[in-house]
Structures are given as C-alpha cells and as structure tokens.
Design goal:
The structure is a single chain. 24% of the residues lie in helices and 25% in strands. By secondary structure, it is an alpha+beta fold. It has 2 domains: 30 residues; 131 residues, 3-layer Sandwich (Rieske Iron-sulfur Protein), CATH 2.102.10.10. The strands form 3 sheets. Strands 5-6-7-8 form a 4-stranded antiparallel sheet, with no helix packed on it. The chain has a 3-stranded antiparallel sheet with strand order 1-10-9, with no helix packed on it. It has a 3-stranded antiparallel sheet with strand order 2-3-4. The termini are far apart.
Length: 175
C-alpha cells in the first residue's frame, strides 16, 4: 500500500485556516473593549489633564485665551512698561495685597498666566481694558491691573494664578 502526498491544499487544510482566522478575529473582538475601557474617557481628560501651550506666536503686548479644566486661562506677554507699572504699585494699597513677583515665575517676568474668571460673580473679564491696562469685567466694573490684581470695583480678590511650569523658553504646561 502506498500513500500519496499531495502538494495541493485539501479541504481539511482550508478548514484549519478558516477556523484559525475566525478564532483570531473573535479573540480580537472580545479583547478590544477590555483594553479600550482602561483608557480615561474624554471628560476625565478635559477635567484635569495638563495642557501645553506654545508661547512663540504670542508677541510682546499680546495675550491669548486657552481653556484648562473648562476655565478660560489668559496668557499675557507683558511689555516692560506693564511690568514696571505693576511693580511700582505699593502692595499695601491693594485690596488683596500680593506682589507682582509672587504672581509670575522668576526669569519669566513678562509672562502672566491667570484664570480669567472675575472673583466677584464669575464673569469673564476682557484683557487690555480698564484704567490699569490689565483686565476689565464689564458686568459689574471690576478692574484688574497688568498683574491680575484687583484695583477697583466689587471683586474681593485677585485673578487666581493656575499651577504652571515652563517646559522650555517657548512652552508652558498648565496643570
């Protein structure tokens, strides 16, 4: 008796390959949601994930508004005149005494980063408005200087400074 070995695929070979492919696709379809559910959802990321902002397109005297944790964040590239005016104010004369140096990072005095929510009733103030070349809240008239400190109006406190670090000279990480 002789057995013939055929080089051509048989029906049994096709069934082995088809069963293996079906099992691989089924396993992938089962495992995918299990792995995917381990990632944080978009609302969690939006709620507290740090953001990085490129500062290079912001010219001296300009500002931008970004959002972090659903709050508007003003990033202002202050002029030397704005810095000098903010530092010339006697700290004891302010309603919420805080020096300009305490509100910026050393070596990056021109960058002011504040949460853009008025401390009176939560409105969003306008940048480069008011009597102090800082922020003006049109709702109730609060005026902040170029360091985000309350100078006039019903707001009880300065604009808050969010936690931030400079990643490089042109990049800041907020959060």
């Amino acid at each position: 008796m002789t057995t013939a070995s055929s080089a051509e695929p048989t029906r049994r070979d096709f069934l082995y390959v088809a069963t293996g492919a079906f099992a691989a696709v089924g396993t992938a379809a089962f495992v995918w949601p299990l792995i995917s559910q381990m990632n944080p959802d978009a609302s969690t990321i939006a709620a507290g994930a740090p953001i990085q902002v490129d500062l290079s397109p912001i010219a001296v005297g300009q500002d931008i508004k970004v959002f972090w944790r659903g709050k508007p964040i003003y990033i202002m590239n202050r002029t030397q005149k704005q810095i000098d005016e903010a530092r010339a104010v006697p700290v004891a004369s302010l309603p919420d005494p805080e020096s300009d140096q305490a509100r910026v990072k050393e070596g990056h005095d021109n960058w002011l980063i504040v949460i853009g929510i008025c401390t009176h009733l939560g409105c969003v103030p306008l940048a480069h408005e008011g009597n102090y070349d800082g922020f003006f809240c049109p709702c109730h008239g609060s005026q902040y200087d170029s360091s985000g400190r309350i100078r006039q109006g019903p707001a009880p406190a300065n604009l808050p400074v969010p936690p931030y670090t400079f990643v490089s000279d042109t990049k800041v990480q907020i959060g």
